[in-house]
Amino acid sequence: MDAISEAILKRTRGSYPFHMPGHKRNRFYLPQNLLELDITEIPGADNLHAPEGLLRELQEDIAAIYGADESFLLVNGASSGITAAICAACREGESAQIARNAHISVYNGLVFSGASPVYLMPGREPGGIVGGILPSTINGRAAATVVTSPTYEGFVSDIESIAGRVHSHGGILIVDEAHGAHFPFHSTFPRTALNCGADITVNSLHKTLPALSQCAALHVKGNRVDREKLRFYVRAFQTTSPSYMMMAAAGYALRMLREQPEHFERYAERLKKIRRELPGQGGEYPVALCDFSNGSSHTDEPGIFACDAGKLLFRLNTRLSGGDVLEVLRERYKLELEMARGRYLLAMTSVADTDEGFARLTEAIEELNRELPYINNTPVARGSGSKSTYAPEVVYTPRDALRRKSETADITNAKGRVSAEFVVPYPPGIPLLVPGERITGAFYAQLKEYRLTKKEIKILQ
After folding, report:
1. C-alpha to C-alpha distance for 381 and 68, rounded to whole angstroms
2. Dihedral angle, C-alpha 62, 68, 74, 78, nearest 10 °
3. What is each CA distance from 5 to 71, 163, 274, 454, in whole angstroms?
4. Whole-structure pTM over 0.90, yes or no?
5. Could you give all domains of the chain from N- to C-terminal order, each with its CATH number?
């Protein structure tokens, strides 16, 4: 066995995945003959770049599920769809309103389109976790507005109100709904952005549904978007050798979930059960489940219009950091969570999770709460805390900055200079710094928050 395979199997053997991809290694939701599905564009298999048969039918099925006028299957992940959408909606020099907690793919869209960013700052930030975008921040005329909803942590913005404001200024609303691919399948989850007035949405099928990594979909609705231009960019940012194994697996899962709603009924019940059993943040628990919705999908928190019940976000009130607890969960309980940052842990769930998996997580959290001391790590009221995004000073557009000459500098001496590169922690893939932005003290604070040990940085000459 090769070194990569051995290393992966060593990490996954015996562990339970509370992280993406959403198939959770549950073979029930995947075709049993995956290897036989790995083919090329042979006769009868159709062509993703000019679909007329099987793949066209699959895309029509996807459009019906998500309420789109037209849907495009993406095999380069949601990132390719986000970049294509921005290029289709914006011409060089036009303004694009961008949520500053956007994924790196949004900024790539700015580079390729030449659009000039106007940043929208997220709403209230519960304990350092960034919320959604407030509709009141949508001002002025822009070719497109790009909003991330739900966020990585599962916070949903008021898309209906945002869409009304964007459209009143003649703009196009693009919603990065990568983490909301499961929304159409059950009323437990918030409404999809497309059904709230968005013009283009992009879903990562592999994040929260039983699909293989990189599988995603782009949806368009209404007549505000130039469809021919969108089709061109979707093709341009995708491989000419799409994985039939990936596309067939997505079709298999989507059709099963649409035709057999009992799968999502069971999933919704599991989520209700685990949320009842897990200790909440209202009590003095070292590891507490955050529930900004107080048990319902909608909230009264500014910037958090609704919440995704499928995201289990934990707040730590103990001496250990998120990384420390993540390691304990991994080594002692064989539970692999999606993310640890600061005093937070994130467990991602999906319809492919099992009763056994939820029980293991519940037992682990209960045991940790019996062992760890409670220390109140929240010095301010719930719903506020340290900022994890900040309004940057944009000196050049990302495209202009990348075209200019740069030099490498010691990062400790770069304050006040203009960045020539992206600085992006993973997860969640949200840039701390973008080419063309001035490097400030707030950036250094974020480096410390994310524990990044970057020594050098590219700056403009």
Report:
1. 41
2. -120
3. 35, 46, 33, 29
4. yes
5. 27-258 (3.40.640.10), 261-371 (3.90.1150.10), 398-460 (3.90.100.10)
Rounded distance, CA 108 to CA 67, Å?
A: 27
Spatial distance between the Cα atoms of 90 and 129, rounded to a whole number of angstroms: 30
**CB-hemisphere CA count at 13 Å for 163?**
20
Sign of CA dihedral 407, 412, 416, 420: positive
Are the CB atoms for 172 and 225 separated by under 8 Å?
yes
Q: Backbone dihedral region of 416: left (phi > 0), alpha (psi from -120 to 50 degrees) or beta?
A: left
pLDDT digits (tens, 9 = 90+) for 139-190: 878 999 999 999 999 999 999 999 999 999 999 999 999 999 999 999 999 9
Give yes or no for residue 387 having a pLDDT over 50: no
Give how far Cα 225 sits from Cα of 169, 174, 228, 444, Å. 15, 10, 9, 39
Cβ(179)–Cβ(154) under 8 Å?
yes
295: buried, middle or exposed (CB in 10 Å: 19+, 13-18, 0-12)?
exposed
Whether 279 and 312 have beta carbons less than 8 Å apart is answered as no
